[in-house]
Design goal:
β1 and β2 form a beta hairpin. The protein is built from five helices and two strands. The protein folds into two domains: about 70 residues; about 45 residues, no CATH class. The radius of gyration is 31 Å and the shape is elongated. The chain is about 55% helix and about 5% strand. Strands 1-2 form a two-stranded antiparallel sheet. The protein is mostly helical. InterPro entries: H-NS_C_dom, H-NS_C_dom_sf. It comes from Zoogloea ramigera. GO terms for molecular function: DNA binding.
Length: about 130
């Protein structure tokens, strides 16, 4: 095949077709290999998961799809609970993490010329003790 005679658009179409065919053949090869490995393990009285040390039994067709889906989407990180760093001076049930917009009671406190450190949750516990 002489690629020098093809236009850029034709080369891109060819590239897309080649990438698709490579993916298809790779998937087929993986499935075939998985079936052969499962058959070999069964001949020895074991499951493939037992051979490779996995605890949970997985369906053969689901294993490659799961890996592909996991590669496509990154896992979401669980948000850690926000820790209250500042407490309201009169009502300790009201708090602020120090992130985001300041609550009005913090703004009022600072407007009176008082230090933000006086509202620290750990400082209030030390003062009360």
């Amino acid at each position: 095949m002489d690629l020098s005679s093809l236009s850029v658009a034709e080369l891109r179409r060819l590239q897309t077709k080649v990438e698709t065919e490579i993916r298809r053949r790779s998937d087929t090869a993986k499935k075939d290999l998985l079936k052969r490995m499962q058959k070999l393990a069964a001949e020895h009285g074991m499951s493939l998961n037992e051979v490779i040390g996995q605890e949970a039994e997985k369906a053969p067709a689901a294993a490659p799809a799961t890996k592909k889906a996991a590669a496509a989407k990154p896992a979401k990180k669980a948000k850690a609970a926000s820790v209250i760093k500042f407490r309201h001076p009169e009502n300790s049930a009201i708090g602020w993490t120090g992130h985001g917009r300041k609550p009005q009671w913090v703004i009022d406190w600072l407007a009176q010329g008082k230090a933000l450190d006086d509202l620290r949750a750990d400082a209030a516990a030390v003062t009360a003790a």
